[in-house]
Records
---
Amino acid sequence: MAEINGLGKSMKRKEDARFIQGKGNYIEDIVLPGMIWLDIVRSPYAHARIVNIDTSKAAKIPGVLGFITGKDLEKYNLHWMPTLMSDRQMVLPTDTVKYQAQEVVGVLATDRYAAADGVAAVEIDYEPLPVVVDPFKALQPGAPKVREDKDSNHIWHWEAGDREATDRAIRQAATVVKQRIYIPRIHVASIETCGCVANWDPINKHLTMYMTTQAPHAIRTVIALVAGHVGLSEENIRVISPDIGGGFGGKVPVYPGYVIAIAASVLLGKPVKWIEDRSENLQADSFARDYHMDCELAADGEGRITALRIKTIADHGYTDAAANPSKYPAGLFSICTGSYDYRTAFTEVDAAYTNKPPGGIAYRCSFRVTEAVHAIERMVDILAHERGEDPADFRLKNFIKKEQFPYKSPLGWEFDSGDYHAALQKAMDMIGYRELRKEQAEKRARGELMGIGISSFTEVVGAGPSHQFDILGIKMFDSAEVRIHPTGKAIARFGTKSQGQGHETTYAQILAQELGIPAEHIKVEEGDTDTAPYGLGTYASRSTPTAGAAAAVAARRIREKARKIAAHLLESAEEDLVWEVDRFYVKGSPSRFKTIQDIALAAYTNPPPGVEAGLEATFYYDPPNMTFPFGSYICVVDIDRGTGQVHVRRFVAVDDCGTRINPMIVEGQIHGGLTMGFAPAFMEQIQYDENGNIYGGNFMDYLLPTAVETPRWETGKTVTPSPHHPIGAKGVGESATVGAPAAFVNAVVDALWHLGVRHIDIPITPDKVWQVLKAHGAAAEE
Amino acid sequence: MIPPEFDYVAPTTLQEAIAVLEQKPDAKILAGGHSLIPLLKFRLASVNTLVDINRIDGLSYIREEGGWLKIGAMTREADLEHDPLIGQKYPLLADAARTIADPLVRNMATVGGNLAHADPANDHPAVMLAYGAVIVAAGPNGLREIPITQFFTDLFTTALAPNEILSEIRIPAHKAGNGGCYQKLERKVGDYATAAVAVQIHIGANGVCDTAGIGLTNVGPTPIKAAAAEQTLVGSKLDDAAIKRAAQLAADAAQPQSDYRGTEEYKRALVKTLTVRALRKALERARN
Ligand SMILES: Cc1cc2nc3c(=O)[nH]c(=O)nc-3n(C[C@H](O)[C@H](O)[C@H](O)COP(=O)(O)OP(=O)(O)OC[C@H]3O[C@@H](n4cnc5c(N)ncnc54)[C@H](O)[C@@H]3O)c2cc1C
């Protein structure tokens, strides 16, 4: 039998041949005849009135063709656009700018250089207006108002759980710990910035939109809804998302640049390219996180957790342009009760407008799950320390037990499966937890600072079941269309869109397992709305839980038809056939068989009477529940008392994502995810001064770790398949990003707890650690 | 991140290059380009002509001659990093070269450019202050020697005349009893120093320190020579008390400002810590 590279095989990624040889096809690679370049003039102010825009000097620059302003778009009612969260966002301002680096004027030119010179030559007079950057201040009476079209800076209030019961439980608890935890504004900083080529064909009234989007189908519908009134009709819109150099949630939103490019193409009747530079990407594209969380966690006299209360202020910038499912303004933050067994919780979030760019996207995180996990994993550690209990033992005592699944969480989720004890125990064994505690005690006696931090996270991914999850009313199913060719090879298309996750390989392996066709011979395509079936795209670890499931179910439908054809070919009854790897054989006589290749050929050359020709299926998968990946991470740090530097000595990550399709890809996702958890824990942050000037708008200031800073990752696994997913898989793209930050902070605080330190907000910089050491009399005098 | 328009010339001799500088006072030398090109791309600088000196032969060398280590201005950081002579005898320079930027930048960036740029955040200025180096400048009237203590006149400003090209750096040649060390704290590879300390000492046969150089990186508007700290070491046996005294004087000499790399207080404390560590290491190396 042929090697089919089905589930569990670490086959090399099919897409890598082109990526590692520089033959990927990214937006910047797309060059069309007669193409025009768009570049954008941006606001130097965080809040200002536009007094005058003078383009006369810029117009004289050779190659500059023209300009697009908010006033131009206003004529077509395209100067504002809706956000996914039922708010609205400027495409270009007609009156005031709301954040530094906001788009103000589009400059069109015959080449990229002329466009940049044009941008530099546009002269704009601004009248600065009062700025508010702190969300707490923004919510106070009398604060400068960010939006003229709103009553106040308060956007919405959201809550979940039982307020009274939680208040009561916290009042009655033996121990209550409280902590304000800030998880700062960060940026996905994908290697490829955002961009597009908009190509309007005036004769056929057809728009082809090549763009960096994680959700091409949804974007097509959004374009049709927003610009239907100016003649863009959905059958004449084709969105093509070519290779994407990293998305991480940052390529879900519709940015003004895309819309300006479309408008420019329609006005000029020529293709228009827009590519952000690095600073534009960091300064203006959607941010992530920015949650200020007041947390309280309570326990009884035996140290059993009894209740959790979190009150959060969410900084959304000048508009709510998050990309959450419509019914979830605070995303899936209600996963914040964590991996622990208790019945009472209450959480509320108030969202504020400030003079900063919008966002609140799910940066490699299923909608605010990182914030939630950070809060609970920090609080559990604080509570354990406060009670003088070992943080590992405290967790083991409070975990939901294996027998309790499916487990109804106090904030309404049904955790499908889990074995939290096994994952933590495995991590403890791998790292040698008890010995490390002994070493720590010895070191502490010598005045050396060593810490051990644990994070035992539970995620909620795979949005999602149609009764709860939609975006702009469109249900969050996803799709697979599978066609088998006469020679027994296949093409499969999906509503999702890989940005580096390896879908071309993973999906092929699922289909190989189900159909017996070698994964090498299954071509996977995504990203072209003219060819792929509708779907809501790739983010929030949803591709495997939704489209991956759709692939399995579509393949099983094909196999049912294949059984009919095989029965016909083998002149036997369907129920007498047995499926094995790549063939049906007659029960009891394995030498009488037909392979999937024989069957595929017959589907076109010799179909059974009364059975339609061909061998294909399309399936739209509506998941019955979310999946709940989990894991336990343990980190060991040493702290330099002279410089405040934290050295991550070891990091063990035990992940449970259910069935592992391609273990090598899973491993890669975890390595990358851990690094993206390390980065905000120690380095990344976008900050603003009181005037709204950004700090962190380029890679000299916005710090990404290199291989040198990145710790060495030690990975392990447990496998608890999802009971409701067709192949038991759970989604793994984000576990590590979500779970890792708390492990780092817990380790650093663990090293310093005996000095009286209770918490340090991320990013934990050397300067910050040194200040803490100094404040607690522990900075080394050398 | 697209620079404004500029002219470009690529002379093949120093004389030609100097002639262009004389004709076009706003022209700028292009060496490795890793400080200048970013400035142009951010449109923080505009230049009418770039004079590329990469095609001039004979500006890249590392050799000992006449009591000096001579380094050609166009020597790349990567060459310093991998040079066996420097690895064996000039540990301060070797330490510094390894911490400058990242390997990609080091393949292009030049020692001359690093000094001529006079950025107090650059690493070579403090290193050369610690060594007591001499800068050689080529101008219309030939060569001129400038002691390093007179080279950095202000932020991004040097003693080079607009028509002069930095052609060589001279460091006193290694002798027995020399020891050096560079201690730099950076937030990540490729970042400039939060603070860094360069130390070069000489220990006489009697175990007493007879020369000491200490340079500080990125804690002031120019690279700083910690003269009082140097003086306190000379004549001492570099015992713990002397090292701590010097570290305190170095910290006092720093003029840091609070920024996102750290507060003023932190940076000053860092200078102290790093000076202690650099001196201990330099002493260890001097004794070996
Ligand atoms: C990402 C990044 C990180 C970096 N990190 C560090 C770091 O950690 N430490 C550090 O020290 N540096 C760092 N640098 C700077 C790097 O080392 C520079 O390349 C160096 O400072 C300048 O050298 P260059 O050859 O590139 O000079 P260029 O950029 O070509 O020139 C710089 C300036 O010096 C002038 N100049 C150059 N050569 C001469 C000459 N021979 N005579 C007269 N004038 C001349 C030029 O006209 C220009 O004004 C970093 C750079 C980058 C891009």
---
Amino acid sequence: MTLLEGKNLTMVFGGLTALDSVNIHINKGEILGLIGPNGAGKTTLFNLLTGVYSPSRGSIYFKEREIKNLKPYQITRLGIARTFQNIRLFGEMSVLDNVIIGQHCRTRTGVFGAIFRPPAVRDEEKRVKEKAMEILEFVGLAEAAKEKAKNLPYGKQRKLEMARALATEPELILLDEPAAGMNPQETNDLIELIQKVNDMGKTVLLIEHDMKLVMGICQRIVVLDYGKKIADGTPEEVKNDENVLKAYLGAALDKEVK
Amino acid sequence: MNSYYVQILTVTGINIILAVSLNLVTGFTGQLSLCHATFMGIGAYTATLAALKLGIPFAVALILGAISAALFGFIIGVPTLRLKGDYLAIATLGFGEIMKNILLNLEITGGPMGLRGIPKVTNVYVVYLCVTLVIFSLNRIMHSRVGKSFIAIREDELAAEAMGINTANFKILAFVLGAFYAGLAGGLYAFFFRYINPNNFGFMKSIEILSMVVLGGLGNTYGALLGAAIITVLPEFLRSVSPVIAQYRMVFYGILLVAMMIWRPQGIMGENKVMKRRGQAA
Ligand SMILES: Nc1ncnc2c1ncn2[C@@H]1O[C@H](COP(=O)(O)OP(=O)(O)OP(=O)(O)O)[C@@H](O)[C@H]1O
Ligand SMILES: [Mg+2]
């Protein structure tokens, strides 16, 4: 079953076409990899799917519902969560509070509830805190619960990004280079974690440069290059695709020339 | 106690309410507002007119003043809070000037002469009862889902939105709450000084309140409280030393703001970084 579908997605920034008529679908329950050289348009695609930008052309369906004109907070409520490539935690807040904020859209307390604290509000607070601790436990950050988010080492910040996204209770979770800056040990833990998240029934869309990671856990891979989709298939198919080899070889050559 | 000291203590209490409520908007939610004194003025005029012209009991008039300030906070908040940083500051500045001119020209507000002959109902006890209620409710809010959402918006608006927070609504909510408390302070002010005119609630007063918050520490309620106390008491002290120095109060605030930004941007008690680095899109 198709969980999310992007049709003909095009995004133009000024004169630059960052995405060019991309068709992409995500099946319920899969781990889909999204790869491509730097500047290929991967993060831009995430920004379209999560409502940060509205596409210049094309449409997006989540569970058959058109979402391209919804705001990011509305899309989160529908069940799509994301992490950010350039970590965007609430730095001055505690690790625990970061995850508690993640449950914002699943809770209700308003100003009057906050001031008068009736039993319903106390219960909600207790539940939220327990759930947040559970999630921290799950990603392996429980000991750091009281620390300020900005004081965590890099690898743990990436994990906290994931914990926070999980707290929104998503059906689909978009991970933008979750292994960037992690050491091999942390990367292995992360692979396990993503697998566990998927086993919980969550669908995963994963942007990653680490080929071993992508090839290892993705059932299917979509490749972008210069804003166009150039391949879509199993890791085996993609690995041997001529266009993909050319794109990556081209990118490698460019780097060498520089 | 000597009535002079009681007066300073009372004014300090009113300024504490103003400072902690501006801190909610600017310190916790990260929205720079330069019209806090305007909301105070709206509260002062509404409460006064309600009491004088309609004969409404003072306690009710105070609350009406706060509600009407909150209403104005909503009306100005909806269009302006889509603006970011500097633009928001300029919009609030414009709103303050417009309101001042309206107060200067309306007949019912007494124009530049203001309103006189207001009965003295506020005393030091009433003020500190209000201070206690304001700080109590603020603390409750800040420890709740609502307050955490305010801080999340300050820390990273895009990430807050990605967590499912309707950031536009919560920014407006912070603004409305801040205006409500400021309106309450305005009513207390009117019923204490018994005479109000538009100049009591102008840009200078807004800057004075901002100085209190910055001095004490943006994003820290007790810092704002301390800042309010220092900025209220210090000029009085200076006046007793030399009346000339006291005349240069505004210069002092200016120097203070600049100095704090350079050497201690987090204020006396604050730990938070002030005036968030502006985030770029994901
Ligand atoms: N807000 C924006 N304004 C203008 N140009 C943008 C904007 N966002 C992205 N771009 C441009 O769009 C292109 C695609 O960027 P994008 O970030 O999607 O690439 P990416 O595939 O995620 O790359 P990387 O692997 O480096 O993260 C780039 O040329 C980028 O400079
Ligand atoms: Mg990217």
